Amino acid sequence: MKRRDYHLGDSKKDNRHVQSIQRAMAIIETLDKYRELGVTEIAEKLGLERSTVHRILSTLKALGYINQNLTNHKYSNSFRFFEIGNNVIQSLGFRRQAMPFMQELSTKSNEAVNLAVLDGKYVIYIDKIESPATIKVDLPVGKRMPSYCTGLGKVLLAHLPEMTVRELFEDEPLIRYTKNTITDIDELCQHLAKIREQGYAVDNEEYVEGLLCIAAPIWGHTKNVVAALSVALPKFRYSDDDDKIAHIRDILLDVARRFSISLGYQPPHIDS
What we know:
Elements (H helix, E strand, L loop, with lengths): L18 H16 L4 H8 L3 H13 L3 E3 L6 E3 L2 H13 L1 H16 L2 E8 L2 E8 L14 E3 L4 H7 L4 H7 L16 H14 L2 E4 L6 E9 L5 E10 L8 H20 L10
Antiparallel strand pairs: 1-2, 3-4, 3-8, 4-5, 6-7, 7-8
């Protein structure tokens, strides 16, 4: 789920929002970020009274959304959220429609293939086909990753208005994960403009050292980007100027184009 930095103790009352729901969601997202916390820890992070936190946790626990560790009495989110998220993914229909194209891409590239969507400033992997190779890239379905330093995330960000991109990252700095991570918002926006122009994105060890990722947008019938498809390549099997990378890129772009057409997208005609 999308993570925010909450501190509710000093917030002014907003009649447009239901305060108890706002607090419950803040607790859920805080547990998502920190995995397991006690009542006091949650109260301190959110600026709430312990009694308020305890009351909300008790309600969420009774409803099956929160688990309590019987050893240390701390709380964590339950698998109920995974069930809900998985139902949402299934309802999108992307996985079923995408699978033949993902299988084709996997067969032709002999590498891992991933399908993802954008959720705020994060990218969520909604399906994948693992590489048949002995050494694999582990990117589990449901994993949430930063968008600005991943191939899938960048190709999705590239098709948002620049102002929207800047607003997404205005409240926190771009974290440097490797020496190749872009951490300046102006540089990122320039980079996204290039991605938009060339039609694909490359993550060259920007999030994980040793991982190269090539990603292409998936367009819907409304001519908006609705998802992204990628091929993940262990860097040791490729070099920066390897012809194999260009070959896989071309396969990816062709598969992504045909997948988009299957969703009702009509590519612009190019006069010869």
